[in-house]
Amino acid sequence: MSSPPIIHIEKLYKQYKEATTFAIHNLNLAIDQGEIYGLLGPNGAGKTSLIAMLCGLLSPTSGSMTLMGWNYGQQPRAIKSNIGVVPQEYALYPTLTARENLMYFGSMYGLKGKILKERVTHSLEVLGLTAFADKRVETFSGGMKRRVNLIAGVLHQPKLLFLDEPTVGVDVQSKTAIIQFLQQLNALGTTIIYTSHHLVEAQEFCTKIGIIDQGQLFVQGTPNELIAQTAGAKNLEDVFLSVTGKTLRDVV
Question: What is the pLDDT of residues 180-205, one digit of tens each?
């Protein structure tokens, strides 16, 4: 018997005050436990609104969604203690060292003592930051900050991890280290929801892809399935353009 989906969304709508259209429109989505799910779409497609609702930062206008079998109306603490969020913007204190940042964020998740110290030390080692652990984050390169930012979101070993552009602006070595670290987390049982504009990376990294536009889910499947189903497509970028079109999506 298969496990229930870790995320289950039915008839979800989100309309902001004074908006004339819905940011999310009648969206239905089920994501299985253990997936690396790429949520892709052009600027303004509704990705940010959907992720914000799944993280409990926004309330839906209508519809239902459950995470790990819970909903925010009944079990907000249970959900939030089992999810990790790694934003695109660095959520770090620049004047603190990498270790101090991680000790602080780990304590915010309820970790303490030996367990917290061991997880911080191990994560810094795995991501090649041991030699820089006690240097201030403001002195770090973009790739180093990105790696510390990632560790801060996963110290509590979440069941469900939300990633927004986890490799943007980093060198090839940092990108490789980040992707390998995430794959190891996934192998240990963490389901990953990933948003990015790096379609080559998404094609290689994700086990399943969903493309949304205008607040609706248009296609879903493994990268290979989507490429095979799209006439003339040779890669995920071809699929993406086939679904969303070539019109520029500038937003302010």
Answer: 999 999 999 999 999 999 999 999 99
Residue with tokens 């004047």: 95
- Residue 155: how many other CB atoms lie within 10 Å: 22
Would you tell me the crossing angle of helices 142-154 and 113-126 to the nearest 10 degrees? Answer: 140
In a domain, 33, yes or no: no
**What is the number of domains present in the chain?**
1
Instruction: Please write the tens of the pLDDT for every residue from 103-142.
Output: 999 999 999 999 999 999 999 999 999 999 999 999 999 9
Asked if residue 5 is part of any domain, the answer here is: no
Q: What is the pLDDT of residue 89?
A: 87
> Is 45:215 a contact under the CB 8 Å cutoff?
yes
Q: What is the pLDDT, as a whole number, of residue 12?
A: 97
Distance CA 85, CA 105 (A): 12
* Helix%, strand%, coil% for the chain, nearest 5: 40, 20, 40
Give the structural domain span for 127: 89-155
pTM: 0.92
Question: Over the stretch 17-51, which tens digit does the pLDDT of each residue have?
Answer: 989 999 999 999 999 999 999 999 998 899 999 99
| Strand segments (E) across the chain | 7-14, 24-31, 36-40, 62-67, 83-86, 160-164, 191-195, 208-213, 216-221
Give a yes or no: residue 83 inside a domain: no
List beta partners, residue 38: 194, 209
Residue 103 included in any domain = yes
